[in-house]
Specification:
Blueprint: H1 2-31, H2 35-47, H3 53-65, H4 69-82, H5 87-97, H6 111-120, H7 125-148, H8 152-168, H9 170-184, E1 188-191, E2 195-199, E3 208-213, E4 217-224, E5 227-231, E6 237-241, E7 245-247
Antiparallel strand pairs: 1-4, 1-7, 2-3, 4-5, 5-6
Helix pairs in contact: 1-2, 2-3, 3-4, 4-5, 7-8, 7-9
């Protein structure tokens, strides 16, 4: 049993080392402006299941250099899933979005839904969880002081801090759960082909509602066979083929 465990640990370590080596090779190729080869290496690492801000940021940059805006934006968005506050990724995403052909009006959301979404995206799910635990332990500490403190004023302060902290810890835990679900399945995608038709039905012979270009962001509603039903930021609904759009 011990030998088996050692073998598994060595296997994991070897796999991790190999992935790191490929990532480093890709980064060197990028520095040499060999973007196609760098993209191939980075995508190999992604295919192995690795997720990191650096990986998707670098891959997005490589695609941007090749003017593949759809793939660039897709990877910038994936990097922001892992770290919503990464300034470099935010800047490069905005730079890529400014070059998009489609100018789709964004419908205003209900203010509470907008506030929740903007607040949730301030931190990753991990950071929100840590904040929730911090307030939880402060609350427990406050109640311990209330029960065991000797001075009346300290006991009163402990009770107030404890109750307030325990009540407040609910918010970061709820935000952590919401952000975690968004990270696991954002329900959003990016058009990755240069040009595609938004169809009225899941059929190539159906009427084309409009033409979409690479980099346009969509939200998934349903899927049938090889088709995604999507909704645009302006409320327009239609169908896109699987190979024209990729989930963030």
């Amino acid at each position: 049993m011990k030998y088996y465990l050692l073998f598994v640990l060595l296997l994991i370590g070897t796999s991790s080392w190999g992935t790191t080596a490929v990532f480093q090779e890709a980064s060197e190729l990028y520095k040499q402006k060999k973007y196609d080869e760098a993209i191939q290496k980075y995508e190999t690492v992604v295919a192995q299941g690795l997720k990191s801000v650096e990986l998707h940021y670098n891959l997005g940059n490589a695609y941007y250099k090749k003017q593949q805006l759809g793939k660039a934006i897709l990877n910038y968005e994936r990097a922001l899933l892992l770290n919503p506050r990464d300034k470099d990724t935010q800047f490069n995403l905005k730079l890529a979005q400014d070059q998009l052909e489609d100018d789709i009006e964004v419908l205003s959301k209900f203010f509470l839904a907008r506030w929740w979404e903007n607040t949730r995206k301030i931190f990753s799910s991990t950071t929100w969880s840590i904040l929730g635990l911090l307030f939880l332990w402060i609350g427990i500490g406050g109640l311990i002081l209330w029960r065991m403190g000797e001075e009346r004023e300290r006991r009163k302060l402990g009770f107030m801090v404890g109750v307030a902290s325990l009540a407040f810890c609910i918010l970061p835990f709820a935000l952590a759960a919401s952000q975690s679900m968004y990270e696991d399945n954002s329900g959003e995608g990016i058009v990755i082909v240069e040009e595609t038709n938004l169809q009225a039905a899941p059929d190539e012979t159906s009427n084309a509602i409009l033409v979409l270009h690479q980099g346009t962001k969509v939200r998934f509603l349903d899927k049938i066979g090889e088709w995604h039903k999507i909704i645009l930021a302006n409320g327009e609904e239609g169908w896109l083929s699987f190979n024209s759009v990729e989930q963030i």
